[in-house]
Amino acid sequence: MMEYKGYIGKVEFDDDAGIFHGEVINVRDVITFQGESVQEIRQAFQDSIEDYLEFCASRNEDPEKPFSGTFTVRIPPELHRKIYIQARTVDKSLNSWVSETFERAVAELY
Predict the structure, then answer these.
(1) DSSP secondary-structure letter at 65?
(2) Secondary structure of the chain: what % helix, strand, coil (to 5)?
(3) What is the average pLDDT across 33-44?
(4) From the centroid of its chain, how far is CA 69?
(5) Residue 52 neighbours by CB distance under 10 Å
(6) Fewer CB within 10 Å, N side or C side of the chain?
């Protein structure tokens, strides 16, 4: 993975074509890039972000922000109830409890 100005790019290698290709994965807008070497793919990634930002500016539109800090999750009502009870049991808001639980889960991965 690569990061530039808060945008995250995922890169794969196409052995048949002999090129790296990637896309920005943390926005809904489609931003892609490719290159034949690590240096080229890194530069293409940054150029694609800059092109995207310039394109948005030329249209007087705000570029999509990589993360807003808000997301909606649909879960079964029974699970919602259990999570709420667990949060209240430890004197936390539902949001705080879920956020802390996610933090612990992610910390285990990294």
Answers:
(1) P
(2) 45, 20, 35
(3) 96
(4) 11
(5) 19
(6) C
pLDDT at res. 67: 76
Q: How many residues does the chain have?
A: 110
**Which residues neighbour 59 within 8 Å (Cβ) at sequence distance 6 or greater?**
none
Residue 66: pLDDT band (50, 70, 90) is confident
Please work out, in degrees rounded to the nearest 5, the angle formed at the alpha carbon of residue 17 by the alpha carbons of 41 and 48. Answer: 25
Distance CA 64, CA 67 (A): 9
- Partner residues linked to 2 by β-bridges: 9
Q: What residue ranges do the domains of the chain occupy?
A: 2-58, 77-109
Instruction: Give the largest CA-CA distance in the chain.
Output: 56
Q: Locate tokens 């892609």: which residue?
A: 32
Helix (H, G, I), strand (E, B) or coil at 74: coil
pLDDT band at 45 (very low <50, low <70, confident <90, very high): very high
